[in-house]
Amino acid sequence: MSPAAVRSLEVLLENVSIRGSTDVGSLVGWNEGAVSNVWVTGNVTGRGETGGLVGVNHGTISESRVEGTVTDVWGGSVGGLVGENFDTISNCHADAVVTSSSSYAGGLVASNYGIITESSAVGSVQGLSYVGGLVGYNNDGTIIDECYAAGNATGTETGIFSYTIVGGLVGLNRGSISNSYARGDVSGQEDIGGLVGSNGDVGSIINCYSTGRVTGSSYIGGLVGYSHPSGIITDSYWDASTSQQGQSAGGTGKNTAEMKQRATYENWDFAGVWGINGSDNDGYPFLRWQAYEAVPVVPSKPLNLTAMPGNGEVKISWSAPADDGGSSIIRYEVCK
């Protein structure tokens, strides 16, 4: 597809049945333009670089959705929306069963070399290795922000010298993952994590969580199966009860009740990014763009409070609280 692309159109492709070799997609095999507002249902099958919407993306894809099945029968790199992404995907969703007879399989994208924001995948994913509920392989210098995956991820590699590398969100991470979560079950042999299977030396995971059951043989963890000593994992959590895992290569394990309390999530932005209300998303935190109603709570105390007496008066000054409780503070009251 040339830079002219599909732009600002309402495109609906129903019950498609697409078969091809490589660079296979229901809309286009290779995209260098802008794709927006496209909805596809049906089945797509290829032998490599196969996506439910686009095979290989070198442009932008936004506000688009895929439902159905996406299958690789030989070469790998199969994703519910895109096989390989080299540019930008935003506000997209895949509800597709993704199956690969090879490696690199993701509920949304198989291999990410670009940016993915405010997107999700809820279908099951299966492949030999490098399998993720959202992305199979997140490469160096890439970004995943404000995304989630809810489907089960399964790695079927059983070779003695091969690592399965499966994560509820990402299989192998060498980029940046922030403000994201995974809810699906994860299984495989080695490097199996509720959020990320393996976090590389330049990988970072910030403000994330996972809840799914995690099973494997070695290097398994509630949040991360294996993390390189130089990898970064900050302010991230896993449900130790539902995952049935008391260990992880990074992050903090909490019980289910704690995972459903806002106070658990230190340094998270519950005003602009996250919300929690006790019912939606089974009581776990959700992303604001999911359009659930967040319930405000009592703000934290004002900072740097000072009181200066003089001439029968007291001059009081303070700085805004670090946490506004999830809603803008419109006034302060001073009581004696």
Question: What structural keywords apply?
Answer:
336 residues, mainly beta, 20-stranded parallel beta sheet, eight-stranded parallel beta sheet, 1 helix, globular
Briefly, what is this?
The chain contains 1 helix and 40 strands. It is mostly beta strands and 336 residues long. The strands form 5 sheets. It has a 20-stranded parallel beta sheet that branches. It has an 8-stranded parallel beta sheet with strand order 2-6-10-14-19-24-28-32, with no helix packed on it. Strands 3-7-11-15-20-25-29-33 form an 8-stranded parallel beta sheet, with no helix packed on it.
What is the average per-residue confidence, as pLDDT, rounded to a whole number? 92
Poorly predicted spans? none
Strand content: over 45%
Count the E strands: 40
Rounded radius of gyration (Å): 22 Å
Described by strand count, sense and barrel closure, the largest sheet is:
20 strands, parallel
What structural category do the secondary elements indicate? mainly beta
Cα shape:
globular
Instruction: Give the terminus-to-terminus CA distance.
Output: 69 Å
Enumerate how many helices there are, as a single number: 1
Helical proportion, percent range: under 10%
